[in-house]
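Q: Here's a chain of 1182 amino acids. Please give me its 3D structure as tokens.
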Amino acid sequence: MSSSRPTQSSTSSARSKHSARIIAQTTVDAKLHADFDESGESFDYSSSVHVTSGVGVGVSVDPKPRSDKVTTAYLHQIQKGKLIQPFGCLLALDDKTFKVTAYSENAPEMLTMVSHAVPSVGDNPVLGIGTDIRNIFTAPSASALQKALGIGDVSLLNPILVHCKTSGKPFYAICHRVTGSLVIDFEPVKPYEVPMTAAGALQSYKLASKAITRLQSLPSGSMERLCDTMVQEVFELTAYDRVMAYKFHDDDHGEVIAEITKPGLEPYMGLHYPATDIPQAARFLFMKNKVRMIVDCRAKHVRVLQDEKLPLDLTFCGSTLRAPHSCHLQYMENMNSIASLVMAVVVNEGGDEEVDPQKRKRLWGLVVCHNTTPRFVPFPLRYACEFLAQVFAIHVNKELELENQILEKNILRTQTLLCDMLMRNAPLGIVSQSPNIMDLVKCEGAALLYKGKAWKLGATPNDFQLNDISRWLSECHMDSTGLSTDSLHDAGFPGALSLGDGVCGMAAVRISEKDVLFWFRSHTAAEIRWGGAKHEAGEKDDGRKMHPRSSFKAFLQVVKFRSSPWKDYEMDAIHSLQLILRNAFKEGENLDANTNIIHSKLGDLKIDGMHELEAVTSEMVRLIETATVPILAVDVDGLVNGWNSKISELTGLAVEKAIGNHLLTLVEYSSTDVVKKMLSLALQGQEEQNIQFEIKTHGSKANSGPISLVVNACASRDLHENVVGVCFVAQDITGQKIVMDKFIRIEGDYKAIVQNRNPLIPPIFGTDEFGWCSEWNPAMIKLTGYKREEVVDKMLLGEVFGTNAACCRLKSQEAFVNLGVILNHAMSGHEPEKIPFGFFSRNGKHVECLLCVSKKLDGEGAITGIFCFLQLASPELQQALHVQRLSEQTATKRLKALAYMKRQIQNPLSGIILSRKMMEGTELRPEQKLLIRTSAQCQRQLSKILDDSDLDTIIDGYLDLEMVEFTLQEVLVAAISQVMAKSNEKGIRIGNDTPEVIMTETLYGDSIRLQQVLADFLLIAVNFTPKGGQLGVAGTLTKDRLGDSVHLAHLEFRITHSGGGVPESLLNQLFENNGDASEEGISLLISRKLVKLMNGDVQFLREAGKSTFIIAVELAATNKSSSLVDNALIQQSACYVMLLFSQLCQLLFVIFCVISTVFWSVLTGGSKVSENNGIGQAVGYR
């Protein structure tokens, strides 16, 4: 596929491409099947696949397209096929009269044949068109089938156990609806089977419970482990000879990613298949029918006879008996797979949340079972496999989400790489240094065509070919800014074949009219490795036959001229680099406007954020003080430091007596382990929800027994995101728990309790052993809006709680599956469980609660059903949780704004860098060169601040500081320049008393970090110096000899300013004596931490009328006579963190002022810089 740079979003672009590919491949599928039907034994599979392949991997438009009639006939055959497999029979009934409108030819024999073991009573019924089905089956069976007709989603009842009237044979009736008819598949119950008497998943689950439990116990983070476990469990559950996990790639070709086989079978692990091997029509059917079984590919199919009076042919796509196409049967026989069982793995498509979740699904892959002999799997086991596949799909979806999170982190890393590239000699730095453009996306080669010259990395075309491609882009894609293709040959480049195997796919973007960036990929076949490709000497495959090895070879032939496709996120990264480079070539004409916009947005962000945080904080304090729910808090040592009036009232323990006690001493012994775990996780930042434990009572409450609480843990964090304690927001459920405990223990008449209208009775519902809703108490009626008679005797899973036409609609298929799992756990005899649960009530309100499920026993201890209890949060707790979510949203919003601002600053910064480099190449006077050097220093400081992202690195001191050679003069000049604008505004004179010998001393260390520290403390000093005041900087230097050429330099700065000095509250933040930090306080704290990383510290001295910051650091210096420095002796460990927005603004402003000054000087031809703005004057020696 090739495309010019799209203007729509990546998601919509991907969907459009996929839709086009589906349409194209359906035509190809139709042609391949038509060729097979026409050719018979002479059909050449490899040739067919090769000719019809090209769109993505395995699909393209046929060079000689057939008539649309071929496609129409193919789809009609799939949808309206009149053949079924012979392991069962089929009937279609009129949904009003219950009479037969269609039947399979084997139905009369299977359903009406008299068994010699069962005496015949009366005349044998005749089965044909118009037969009333109630005459064929026993009265209870006819009644069960008639009941199915009255249910909207009849599949919820599958399988229905029925018995023939004449023979007494049992059958499973599997029902589904088509327009105006009810189609029923009848599968005989084998003599060795124990017939399933209940409907749906409640009974089938028991068969797959072990496999589901194992899947749910797997740690996340490994798709490979998940797939290996799935195929292992299906292998044990179904006893097929081979089980594979088969994944569809973005271009629709397939790959075996996990496999287990019985000994002696050839492995298919690692095989890739063309997209044509599984047609799009078949994939569509897998989305509808999640499990598909072929019992014997050699068996003769059975015709279905239909009433000729019907206006339309019936469709049997939903039938479990539907016969496969002969092309697929031939494929199975060639690979010696006589029987198969296939389970669909359907996951969320993603995209906008507003889209109907039911429409955002895609077929991720299949779990495929093969057997070398005919094999029949009873419907209950197939139902269990379908349930297992749904659980597997949920876990696959979670792994995909985890992969997407990792992908997002990689994108952030990519954005950092882009900025790194532009900090160097743009644009040549992106190809001449490391990291380079090959680190941006996966590729085999990359090139930059710049000013007629080519810079190449890795496997690329030669210079002539690059210029040839560039000319072709200009001529054929002149209206686009770039092109991406997985095949230059298919994209129409005339010289594609001459490029060789190393260059196949290409992504290219223009950075100017004649300058182009290229990325190249080799063909996909070069990357494919098949672990099963082992041949005996002399062994040879017949490529004309349909066989996995033939498919693999056909796939390799298809992708010989095709690379792996370019992902949307890869093209986004390439496009970002393109935009940054294009902007870097533009002059900084709009720099002033950009700077003002940034200042404005930063100010708005700060004001909005502070207002929101103040509102949230005030509301939170008010809630805690007036809350009618128990709230307590502990510090990092587990000692209670918060105890509101409600929990004091419940426990009888006064606030002053509770404060200072360890939380574990206040809870019941039986709850100690639960609380210890919850506390430990919360202190690590993992906040558990809906945890139940019991807390002791004291004083007058001691005799009433412990208090039962359901608690949410909320980690309390300081401004550095360190956990400093835990707040527990609880709900008292003591009354409900007493009632529930009594209720669970009762074995006799429980209806009096269930139907009791006492407000302490929680919402309760229940099912019988077959999954029918049997209980619905008054609290449930009030909560859901549905009366008891509206839900009782309906299927709990599907009719009462479901995703489509259910009474109480669930949010997603995942919620439906999870509900089925917990109900089935209880039905299987497991201990009661609690899970978060949510549904929509009749009025559309979403109810969030805890669901507790318990088994219901009769007098003999047999399970007769299940009871479900809902625990609802009180209004106060819901409000507290709402405020917590509001706080989290505010924090997330500010983080997004921060990320946006960091990214947007890069563009004007690139313009500043380019402007500076342009001026460096011109004739400048000494004072102008000083301004340029100062600008460069400030730019480097700003770049490092933009790269910072983690406060912990500077707080904990994990990383190394840089070691560069510098003089104190360049650092101090750059630092003072950042406060000159503000000092001039306030009329403050800045003096420098540092001796010239120290200013010119050659030092070694992290000059940019030192510059940042000095600028920060200078700014604070200027802020708290009165108008017209004075500020002085003085530096001293002493040395300790470490060797012949290396000295340890002890450098001390004293920043003295007039006035009352820095407020005590700000100093407390500087020296970490106060947990509440302001913006200035955070900046000072970070600067002090940086000083500590330089083996120094900060002191503050307050005297009459003046105040002084004393900043001491240790650096390296050299003997004047030595030109070499032993870096191994002077390397220091360090780390760094992101500084405040105020520093970013200040730096941008200073850089702008510096460049504006130089431009003005150059334009006016002035001989000197104004003394009022001159940096040299500010740091003149006295």
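Q: Can you summarize the key feature?
A: The longest strand covers residues 1046-1058.
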